[in-house]
Specification:
The structure is a homodimer.
Chain A lengths: L3 H5 L2 H17 L7 H7 L4 H7 L3 H25 L6 H18 L1 H12 L3 H10 L3 H15 L9 H23 L4 H21 L11
The structure holds a DNA duplex.
Chain lengths: 216, 216
Amino acid sequence: MPQETFFNLPDVKRNLIISAAMEEFSTANYNTASINQICKKSNIAKGSFYQYFTDKLDLYVYIMTLAIEEKIKFFSTVLAEFHTLTLLEQIRLLFIKGIEFAKSHPQYAALGEQFSKENDESAKLSVMKEGDRQSESLFMEMIHNAKSKGEIDNRVDPLALSMMLQSLNSAVNGYMLNKFGNIRYEYNKEDINNFVDSLLDIIFNGIQSREGDYHE
Amino acid sequence: MPQETFFNLPDVKRNLIISAAMEEFSTANYNTASINQICKKSNIAKGSFYQYFTDKLDLYVYIMTLAIEEKIKFFSTVLAEFHTLTLLEQIRLLFIKGIEFAKSHPQYAALGEQFSKENDESAKLSVMKEGDRQSESLFMEMIHNAKSKGEIDNRVDPLALSMMLQSLNSAVNGYMLNKFGNIRYEYNKEDINNFVDSLLDIIFNGIQSREGDYHE
DNA sequence: TGACATTATGACCACTCGGTCATATAATAT
DNA sequence: ATATTATATGACCGAGTGGTCATAATGTCA
């Protein structure tokens, strides 16, 4: 955690440092990101930086924690109404909300992307000790719930499905980010919904030839 | 491409350099990987290195190209008999072979992992200019083939399915690598087969409750 | 043996890195 | 005005980076 000095800073200055750091860590990985650059971008002296943060790792964990908190806040309203929904609706909501988050918080999304690619194990561990961990078990919980309600077939392997959903979730985000990175979200809302529904259709109905209409 | 001098080297020495470089590039990303370390590991002087390769990028592209060629060689026999198989068999074969490749060529697999996480865009571009590109269109081709044969439902979105397969393919590999990284492959052959089949079952039949047996 | 081309070497260059520290400045309290 | 505390600063450190180059060693002909 940053020193008290950092939080005593005027808001403008503190936010400047934060956004400079976010820019750096969303562009480069832990080892490549440069404290010097962050200092330059935020117009503070090197010595000042080390009065706010004990070291590079301290800053890294702080920034990543901010991103995680923002994401949790964004998803909290969704999760609250989860128990009223079917598995299809739940997954759909998670996918759509994930894309929405990336659209409305591109900086945070880029930080998450970087983090998932991070090479430095100790940096990764330090961040994970601080928060998160829930998304993995979230899917598992959803699956078990749905199974007990008879929403999904008994033959489905929960572990395989969970891995599948996790993988798809991040793939969809990455895909959308690359594809529509610079276009305004509103414009593609329909496309995105259609794409997500196509994915869900595969997951729920399979790809094998089937006769007639959806037998839902 | 390396200089002629490099290929004139005695096999032992040349291979030592190659394996030292592979070790480095499978552990660190492009910017973090160190020429100095590679020289130390392979017992050559810095000056010698720069008589073999024009610069770091030259070495990087060369090493990655070797890995790609090895992977293509490994898959070529499989691809040759593809036209005789159903989509299910094709996908199954790709998944299983992918895991086998990672097991029997862990170094190459690690290089691929690193490459997929690479931050340096110019390094990535240089490698892609040199080879590859096929896996993306391979899935699409398979899907269109299967559709024309009536193997999969008309309602399935080819793009969504292609992305799904790609994503799952790499996820399965990463998952297996993490899970069984240090255990011998033979030991888990059954587990792996079962897991892949669970995934394929979901893809082909969906997860929605269905009555009776597989209606294949 | 001597001439010539090929390969090997490591000190050296300019640069960047994360981190330190003595010192200067500003703010607050007495 | 003085003493005390909190903040700001940038030169400096040791280490590592990719890359260069004059020089030394080796191999190959005549």
